[in-house]
Write a structure and sequence with these properties.
Elements (H helix, E strand, L loop, with lengths): L1 H6 L9 E3 L27 H13 L12 H9 L4 E3 L3 H22 L12
């Protein structure tokens, strides 16, 4: 849904938060390391996912998807190609910077669209 809304110009960006594995000492691994967190999805179309997207777009009066029948691998690659935040290392070291990044993006959106209700930013 986020990719579709971005394609339509309805949102400016996507901010994926990538969380690695939590070790027994409480630290988090790098999401892209060999921990297995970063999925390697098959290059298949998931019809149930497509159906849900069509339902959501229809409910919002947005018509049909601009890009239909995207393979799962393409969807994951497109989402992860956006600059996001990483949970890696000690929570004390990464949590606040991620919160600041998300808060800055929300502030930017609100300040650039003063007539837009802040409650609508997270409607999806």
């Amino acid at each position: 849904m986020a990719l579709e809304l971005k394609e339509r110009g309805m949102i400016e960006g996507i901010f994926p938060v990538m969380i690695g594995d939590k070790s027994p000492d409480g630290d988090y691994s790098n999401y892209f390391s060999r921990s297995g967190c970063n999925p390697n999805p098959p290059d298949i179309v998931v019809h149930a996912l497509e159906s849900k997207l069509i339902d959501h777009l229809g409910r919002e009066g947005l018509g049909t998807p601009y890009a239909d029948r995207l393979p799962l691998r393409s969807i994951c690659t497109a989402i992860l190609s956006n600059q996001g935040g990483f949970y890696a290392g000690r929570k004390e070291d990464f949590f606040d910077p991620i919160v600041v990044s998300i808060t800055s993006m929300v502030d930017h959106c609100v300040s650039n669209a003063p007539d837009f209700a802040a409650s609508n930013i997270f409607s999806i």
